[in-house]
Amino acid sequence: MEKQFKKYFQVLLLGFAGILLVFGFLNFFLDVFGLFGFKDKDKVRVYGEERFSKYLMTFEYVPQNFEGMILGPSLSANLNPSHIQDKNYFNVSLMGARMDNILALASNVIENNGTIKEAIVCIHPYVTTNTGEEDSDLMSPDTYWKALGSVNLLRVYGLGIIRNFNLWPNKYPKNQYNTNGSNSFEALFRVADVADRITKEVNNVDVSEFEIGISQRKDFEKLMTLFQTNNIRTFVYYHPVPYPIYKAHSESMDKYWEDILSGVNSDGEGMLRFYNFNNPEFLVF
Q1: Which residues cross the membrane (predicted)?
Q2: The CATH number of domain 33-282 is 3.30.1150
Q3: Are the CB atoms for 118 and 234 separated by under 8 Å?
Q4: Which range, of 118-122, 128-132, 138-142, 249-253, averages the lowest pLDDT?
Q5: 234 φ, ψ to 5°?
């Protein structure tokens, strides 16, 4: 009886190991994140698990196929780089990203860099506050191996099926993510009365949001140094807000911009360029 149990257990163990091996090889050849070079550039896209997916794309797909990258939170996530003439950009922005997330993405791209020469960075108080920081567990080198088998990967497959067959268009639209990384989420957050929404938001702005977290400030300075050291031409912009919001909080907003740039050493060679799109000179926006 005991021998039969041992034999049964060994067969079960070998069978389980075989299934895991087959699953790993299958994920290797499906290559949904462009990690292993089996997929054409135009066939790699985000289906879900955005942080997991885009971080894995920074190992190979982004640094080897694009000339520039856009980094930021949801404010820049829907910027479609196809409108940038004569430039091949990928939008690495994440919904809810903080500066530590942005630094992790950029660092991985630069570490594996082959073709990236430029970067666009979106700055906003939301990005540099310590309040409501997102989990950064997926922003580590160990995540690489999860591309061969993990719960996150299974979720990506599930969401890929939902999107490709348009099974839940109101929540997971088929082509929400473009192959250049931009997130066409506008339809999911559209409001009927924009003017009324802006009026309400004027009073919802929390002054504490303009306080820059110590670690987030350091990460921003590290990001700028990283780009300078690696000769990445960088365009940093202060994301514009509706004028009524700026008018009510202009002092805090202007002070924030001065504060976040105070620790950055510009090289004087034009590699780092800064634009405050809340400045009155950009009112035409």
Answers
A1: 12-38
A2: no
A3: yes
A4: 128-132
A5: -125, 135
8: pLDDT confidence band, cut at 50, 70 and 90?
A: low
Name the pLDDT band for 15 (thresholds 50, 70, 90). Answer: low
Residue 206 token pair: 């929390």
Asked if residue 51 lies in contact with residue 136, where contact means CB atoms within 8 angstroms, the answer is no
Q: What is the pTM of this model?
A: 0.90
Considering all CA atoms of the chain, what is the largest pairwise distance in Å, rounded to the nearest integer? 85
Q: Do the beta carbons of residue 154 and residue 267 sit within 8 Å?
A: no
CB 85 within 8 A of CB 114: no
> How is the chain classified by DSSP, letter by letter?
-HHHHHHHHHHHHHHHHHHHHHHHHHHHHH-TTSSSS-S-GGG----S-HHHHHHHHTTTHHHHH-SEEEE-SHHHHT--GGGSTT--EEE---TT--HHHHHHHHHHHHHT-SS--EEEEEE-HHHH--TTPPP-TTSSGGGGGGGGS-HHHHHHHHHHHHHHTTS-TTTS-TTSB-TTS-B--HHHH--S-HHHHHHHHHHH--GGGGSPPHHHHHHHHHHHHHHHHTT-EEEEEE----HHHHHHHHHHHHHHHHHHHTT----SSSSEEEEETTSGGGTT-
What is the residue type of 268? Answer: G
Residue with tokens 């926006």: 285
- At 136, the pLDDT band (50, 70, 90 cuts) reads low
Tell me the domain boundaries of the chain: 33-282
pLDDT band per the 50, 70, 90 thresholds, residue 107: very high
User: Residue 169, Cβ neighbours under 10 Å: how many?
Assistant: 12
Interval 242-281: pLDDT, tens: 999 999 999 999 999 999 999 898 765 679 999 999 988 8
